[in-house]
Write a structure and sequence with these properties.
Keywords: Membrane, Transmembrane, Transmembrane helix. The chain is 95% helix and 0% strand. By secondary structure, the protein is mainly alpha-helical. It has one domain. The longest helix is centred in the middle third of the chain and has 37 residues. The protein starts with a helix and ends with a helix.
Length: 39
């Protein structure tokens, strides 16, 4: 039971990390694109 809970917790944590990375990647990509475009 503990193992199953750990797996579910890891799954949600991994999903949250992916969501955070995706939401953070958009402004970072825009900043890089702007920096390259302004040079």
């Amino acid at each position: 039971m503990v193992d199953n809970n750990k797996r579910v917790f890891w799954h949600f944590t991994f999903k949250d990390i992916l969501t955070i990375l995706c939401s953070a990647a958009i402004p970072i990509a825009l900043a890089i694109y702007t920096a390259i475009g302004s040079q």
